[in-house]
Amino acid sequence: MTTRIPVTIIGLGSMGSALAQTLLRAGHPTTVWNRTASKADDLVTQGAVRAETVRDAVAGTDLLIAVVVQYETLRGILDSAEGTLAGKTLVNFTNGTPEQARELAAWAERQGLEYVDGGIMAVPAMIGGPEAFILYSGSQAAFDRYQPTLARLGATRYLGTDPGRAPLYDLALLSGLYGLAGGAGHAAAMVGADAAEFTETLFVPWIKALVGILAPEVTAGSSEGSPLDMQAVVIDNIVQASRGQGLGTGTLTHLLPIMQLIVGTGVGAQLKPLIEQIKEA
What is residue 252's predicted lDDT score, i.e. its pLDDT? Predict the structure, then answer.
């Protein structure tokens, strides 16, 4: 029988709890800590060990997994265990910026703590399932050492030794998601009472069909299949129709001047100038 390595989870919000439950089901001895100790109650009934202090949480395990609200919060938590962290590995799933990840990695190095940053591309219910995947960057030695354990949480994708790379890709993916979600919400508002049927029978199937077509165009920086000059007209029409429905137009109006500017340069079939303009906006 393969021995499962012990793991400590710091932070028991919905995601931290899902990580702990998944590791427990996989047979890993799991220690948990949260500032509000009662959040560990359910996990303790499933076999987790509740640590009373951060120092207790760190003791006896070499793999620390953290998922809290902010990097500053995590730094404050770990400060209370300073002097006991050397030789351990911190995998940090807290959402933050590339700069924050690099700063925390530098602090971890001064503690003798190996650092891996991670971006979880899943909601808590997906953890441990086939569609969950997690981005990692930072210490390759630490990632390689613990990859079999991390793979129990979701498919692993290592992006390199720069600890800021995983949070960068995480935020980029979320940017696309939030843009899509904002557009979907606006579309549903336009059709009003028919929103549920519209979303299920028209919007979602249409988006799925477009994904395979649009992906190569984004990679190539071209929009030959649907030129920007035509799309600029379409967006203007959407804005006017939305106003006619009494809706706000903030989810689209920020794109219209950029697209009109690009079309005016005579490269209306190119996607690359749109990307460049967004960089400068």
Answer: 65
Q: Which is nearest to 57 in space by CA: 8, 19, 114?
A: 8
Q: Residue 92 in contact with residue 36, Cβ under 8 Å?
A: no
pTM: 0.81
| 8-state DSSP, 183 | H
* Cα(165)–Cα(240) distance, integer angstroms: 40
pLDDT at 219: 52
Pseudo-torsion of CA 231, 274, 204, 198, nearest 10°? -40
192-280, CATH topology level: N-(1-d-carboxylethyl)-l-norvaline Dehydrogenase; domain 2 (1.10.1040)
Q: Which CATH superfamily is domain 7-168 in?
A: NAD(P)-binding Rossmann-like Domain (3.40.50.720)
Burial of 120 (0-12, 13-18, 19+ CB in 10 A): buried
Q: What is the pLDDT of residues 211-256, one digit of tens each?
A: 766 655 555 544 454 455 666 666 677 778 888 888 877 766 666 6
The CA angle 166-30-165, to the nearest 5 degrees, is 5
Residue 18: its H or E element: helix 14-25
Distance CA 50, CA 31 (A): 6
Cα–Cα nearest to 85, from 96, 95, 74: 74
> What does the mean pLDDT of the chain come to?
86
pLDDT single digits (tens) 174-198: 887 877 788 888 888 888 889 999 9
